[in-house]
Amino acid sequence: MKKFARALAISAVVSLAAPVIAQAANPMVGGAPMYATKNIVENAVNSKDHTTLVAAVKAAGLVKTLQSPGPFTVFAPVNKAFDALPKGTVETLLKPENKKMLTKILTCHVVSTKALSGAIKKMIADDGGAHIVKTVGGCKFTVMQKKGKIQIKDEKGGVATVTIADVKQSNGVIHVIDKVLLPAS
């Protein structure tokens, strides 16, 4: 009986520790734990740094897409990145009549594969310092590396830096970025 009780106690400790161990491999984002067992939307809604992005995803009708199996790589701009856009831009994009443009911008932050930072850095190195990435939205961005950080140059010449890499999701990966990526038009 003692052996059974001890085995039960050990199994309870292991069960309780499993989510903590799974979480340990993922960085915190926006003050919230990110769980590799949850999808992109389930995790993003908990980040206080991504409330604008979440509102935009909802307004564009992309929630179901980003909850699907994927895999996706999402370059997720923080609220400050949206705040840096010209005054009134976000408010204008969130209006129903601008859904098409909002969808275009958001899907230009998504690649239809799971690309961890190590793989991205290898592609950059293999391509001689820069790699062209085609997004779900049809944008072609240049991915490069500067001082060990991954950077993405959008079609308008703006450059975003990955500030938190490799936030694993059940349907892909998120890389947090400091700028909104914009399509050429």
Automatic annotation (TrEMBL):
Residues 37-181 form the FAS1 domain. InterPro entries: Adhesion/Biosynth-related (IPR050904), FAS1_dom_sf (IPR036378), FAS1_domain (IPR000782). Pfam families: Fasciclin. Keywords: Signal. GO terms for cellular component: extracellular space. Gene3D superfamilies: FAS1 domain (2.30.180.10). This is Uncaracterized surface protein containing fasciclin (FAS1) repeats. It comes from Cohaesibacter gelatinilyticus.
